[in-house]
Amino acid sequence: MAAVIYSLCALTSITCLVLLWRSWRASGARLLFWAALCFACLSVNNVLLVFDRVVFPVEVDLSLWRMAWALAAVLLLLFGLIWEED
């Protein structure tokens, strides 16, 4: 059951990435660009979660890589929010 939930989380974040990217391309709003980059990192994070917990549950520990991608996602969104303050 966990594999299904992890996979659905990855698909949801990829869907958000695609929708945000398409909206940014259509409108040119820079905050949408930063949100899309954030969700790109979150998508990588979720895909790594699937690999870490489902594909390679014992052989490989990807928790450090997952946390690095999550940190990058938060930093990108924070940077976008601060940069686009006006």
Describe the structure.
- This protein has 86 residues and is mainly alpha-helical.
- Helix content is 85%, strand content 0%.
- It has three helices and no strands.
- It has helices spanning 2-27, 30-55, 63-83.
- α1 packs antiparallel against α2 and α2 packs antiparallel against α3 (63-83).
- The longest helix has 26 residues, at 2-27.
- The termini are far apart.
- The model has no long low-confidence stretch (mean pLDDT 93).
Largest sheet: none
Note the overall shape.
elongated
Report the uncertain regions: none
- What order do the helices and strands follow? HHH
Radius of gyration: 14 Å
Task: Determine the strand fraction and express it as a percent band.
Answer: under 5%
User: How many H/I helices?
Assistant: 3
Helix content: over 70%
Distance between the termini: 44 Å
Total number of strands: 0
Structural class: mainly alpha
How confident overall, as mean pLDDT? 93
Q: Can you summarize this structure?
A:
The chain is mainly α and 86 residues long.
Keywords:
86 residues, mainly alpha, 85% helix
How do the helices and strands line up, and which of them pair or pack?
Elements: H1 2-27, H2 30-55, H3 63-83
